[in-house]
Structure formats: structure tokens, C-alpha cells
Design a protein that fits this description.
429 residues; mainly alpha; 17 helices
């Protein structure tokens, strides 16, 4: 078959050696906070160093596995680290967390690419979905027992994520564990929002959207599996009152429908469009207070963006503003525009997606980031980030960046001949 042939078909290939370890790492990233919460409540007091240490172990093992398979890891890591060190030196503020945030997408994507497969992705989602649903049901039906062994608020205090004087929204729950302004999904269920293994509802909603996107992609021809998994996803989203997760699920269906019409360049400009719209909205609502509704979170994100000057947006000047409610402001202030563009370009133009199935999941991943960065920094957490990027690597197939796109070798040949003289290119004058 020639390099310029049409898109390849999705085929079932033997699973690479190490796929079980790769799945175990993804599941470990999903649940290790719950395990530490249990240890903190029942064994000994944990600290931020324990959380950081386990993250380093998980990312380190995944990185060691990938390092033996992919030369791309070295090139991307060197380029990213060089820029980030320069930016941190310019703003005289060294933060190791930024390196971690940059490496998680790279390492877990390559982990899925080299040690995963579509079948491995199926197993990772199924195992994760069963664990998360079990945790959600335990928390919902046996809240006192759950908080006895997993004192969520105490754990967040121990690791320094919540001030020790903060009382919380309820006994042992995280800040957003109760919805005092009323539920969006089935209000008769009350104020409690489950968090399951994530210990906070935001990541639960993000997980629901990721699982929905994969199940819709893969189980369309298996009605029994599709219905069962969709029921589990609906259960965790409803119990967690994850309205943004539900919105994302609706958007996933729309994205998959229009995928044949989408092109990489269109995807590339989406974050810039989102940034412009956020700034316009913030300027239009200047001086107005924001609330905890979706529109209010968008307003807060836009307002935080307006606090950045040019040097801060380039990542070259420090800022004391907390950007927890604005992913774009956080990315620009910490990675800088150049660093953010580097990562975005690598995925949009460098990630292969030759089948329509892989192209659809690539579009979902991009839209997920574009939308989530508009209201929070939750896309940075390893709890859901490891699963998302592992699945993105599992879905990546072929060599082209989109179905029907020109093979890189063919494009290179065209560009080379375009700059040759007619005689050297073997053409007549």
C-alpha cells in the first residue's frame, strides 16, 4: 500500500508487553489519593510530601517505561524543560509543579501509544468505571462509614490544600461536597454531592465525561455493554451533581457527529477563540460579581485573564493572583504563551489520528481541554489526566494527523520538489 493511500481501518492487534503495568499505573493515579485518605484517617498523619512522592513514583515508572520505547520523549522533554527553566529564571520563581504539569500529558500519552491498545483502553475504562461507581455508591448510601475511614476534609488539611481553620461544607466533606444553592440534577436527592475515589466532585464530573467519550466511541456495536456502562456513568454524574460533566457528554455526541468535517487547523485555533470570547465576556460584564453557576465561573475566568499583563501572559513575570478558577490564566502565567503553544501544537499537529475512531477521540480531547480550561485548572490533576492521556495514546493510530490527511513523507517530498530547480526536480522547463 502506498503512503498516500486512504485512511487505515481500525484493527485488533496483539497487546504490547507491559500493557497490564500501564493500566495498573493509570488506576493507581486514579485511586492513590483515596488510599492516602484512608491512611491519614486510620494509620498515621500524611503530608503533602507523601502525595508528591507517590505522584513521582507513578510518573517515574511510566516515564522509565516510555524512555525505552520513544525517542520523542527526550526531544519533547528537553525542549519543554529548556523553555520552562528560562521562563522561571526570568520571573525568579522556580516551581517544580510546572514540570510535573507539563510531563503528565507527554508521558501518559506515550505510555498509551507504546504500551496500550484499543482493547487496553477498554479495560482501563471498565476497571476505572467499576471502582469509581463502587466508591460513589459507598459514599452515598453509607456516608458516615465512608467519612470514618476516608476523612476527606482532614486529608486535604493534612496535605495543605485546605486551611486548617476551614470548617468545610459538612462533616468531613471537601469544600464543594454540598450544593447549598440547590442541585441541578435531580434536586430531590438533596445537597450532598459524592466525590467517590477523587475526594472532590469536580474530578468526578471530568471522569464521567472521559468515560462517556470512550464508551460511546468503542461500545456502539455492543448494546449490552453500552447500556450498562452508560448507566454507571449516569449514576456517578447524577450523584455528584456534575452539571459540567453532563454538558461535556452532550458536547461529545455533537463532536463525534461533526468529526468528518473538522480539520486540524480548526482545532488549533479553538483555544484562541475561547480566550477572545472569555475576555469579551469579562469586559461586557465589567464590575459584575460572579457566582457558582456555569456562566458565573466563565465570568470569573475572564476576569482573572484580564489581570495578566503582556509579560505575565508570556510567562516572564510573576503574579500573585490565584488562578484556580481560570485554566487559561494559569497556563499562560506558568507555561507562558510559547510553552503552551508548544504543547498544543505537538498534540494537534503531531498526534496521529488516521482512523475516524482515533480522530473522534482526538477531537474530544482537544475540546475537553478547551472547555475545561475556561472554568478551572482541574485538567492538570493526575487523577483524571493519567486516564485521559493514556486513552489518547491508545486511540492514536496510523501516521497522519487526521483521516485523509497527507502522509508526512509525501508532504515532505512535495515541499522539497517545490524548492528545487525544474532541472534538478526532473521536470521540463
Amino acid at each position: 500500500m502506498s503512503d498516500t493511500a486512504g485512511p487505515v481501518r481500525a484493527v485488533s492487534l496483539p497487546e504490547p508487553r507491559g500493557s497490564q503495568v500501564a493500566i495498573a499505573l493509570v488506576v493507581a493515579a486514579l485511586v492513590f489519593n483515596l488510599a492516602l485518605s484512608f491512611i491519614n484517617a486510620s494509620v498515621f498523619r500524611v503530608s503533602a510530601s507523601h502525595v508528591i512522592g507517590i505522584e513521582l513514583v507513578i510518573v517515574g515508572i511510566a516515564g522509565a517505561m516510555v524512555a525505552t520505547r520513544s525517542a520523542n520523549l527526550y526531544a519533547i522533554t528537553i525542549a519543554l524543560f529548556a523553555w520552562l527553566v528560562f521562563a522561571m529564571a526570568a520571573r525568579a520563581n522556580f516551581d517544580p509543579k510546572i514540570f510535573r504539569d507539563a510531563l503528565i500529558p507527554v508521558i501518559f500519552f506515550l505510555l498509551g501509544r507504546h504500551f496500550g491498545s484499543l482493547a487496553a483502553g477498554d479495560r482501563a475504562v471498565t476497571i476505572s468505571l467499576l471502582i469509581v461507581t463502587a466508591g460513589a455508591l459507598l459514599e452515598w448510601f453509607f456516608l458516615d462509614l465512608f467519612l470514618k475511614y476516608f476523612d476527606v476534609l482532614s486529608f486535604y488539611r493534612a496535605k495543605g490544600a485546605v486551611d486548617a481553620s476551614f470548617g468545610g461544607d459538612g462533616p468531613g466533606l471537601y469544600i464543594s461536597g454540598l450544593r447549598f444553592d440547590g442541585r441541578t440534577l435531580l434536586p430531590f436527592l438533596g445537597e450532598h454531592r459524592v466525590s467517590s475515589v477523587f475526594l472532590e466532585p469536580v474530578s468526578l464530573g471530568n471522569f464521567g465525561a472521559i468515560a462517556f467519550a470512550w464508551v460511546l466511541l468503542r461500545d456502539g456495536k455492543r448494546p449490552a455493554a453500552l447500556i450498562l456502562k452508560m448507566l454507571l456513568i449516569a449514576t456517578v454524574l447524577i450523584l455528584g451533581d456534575s452539571r459540567f460533566g453532563v454538558y461535556l457528554c452532550v458536547i461529545v455526541a455533537l463532536i463525534y457527529a461533526v468529526a468528518p468535517l473538522a480539520r486540524p487547523l480548526t482545532v488549533f485555533v479553538m483555544p484562541f477563540i475561547a480566550l477572545i470570547l472569555l475576555l469579551i465576556y469579562a469586559w461586557h460584564k465589567a464590575g459584575m460579581p460572579w457566582d457558582n453557576t456555569t456562566s458565573g465561573r466563565i465570568l470569573a475566568s475572564g476576569q482573572l485573564l484580564t489581570t495578566l499583563d503582556l509579560s505575565q501572559a508570556l510567562g516572564l513575570k510573576t503574579t500573585v493572583v490565584d488562578f484556580g478558577d481560570s485554566g487559561y490564566a494559569y497556563v499562560l502565567s506558568q507555561f507562558g504563551l510559547f510553552g503552551a503553544l508548544m504543547l498544543w501544537s505537538i498534540y494537534v499537529f503531531g498526534c496521529p489520528a488516521e482512523t475516524m475512531q482515533s480522530w473522534r477521540f482526538k477531537l474530544f480531547t482537544c475540546m475537553y481541554l478547551v472547555l475545561l480550561l475556561s472554568i478551572s485548572t482541574s485538567s492538570m490533576t493526575i487523577k483524571t489526566g493519567a486516564l485521559l492521556w493514556f486513552l489518547a495514546g491508545c486511540a492514536a493510530q496510523g501516521t497522519r494527523m487526521a483521516p485523509g490527511a497527507m502522509h508526512p513523507a509525501a508532504l515532505s517530498a512535495i515541499l522539497t520538489n517545490a524548492f528545487r530547480s525544474p532541472r534538478r526536480a526532473g521536470l521540463r522547463r
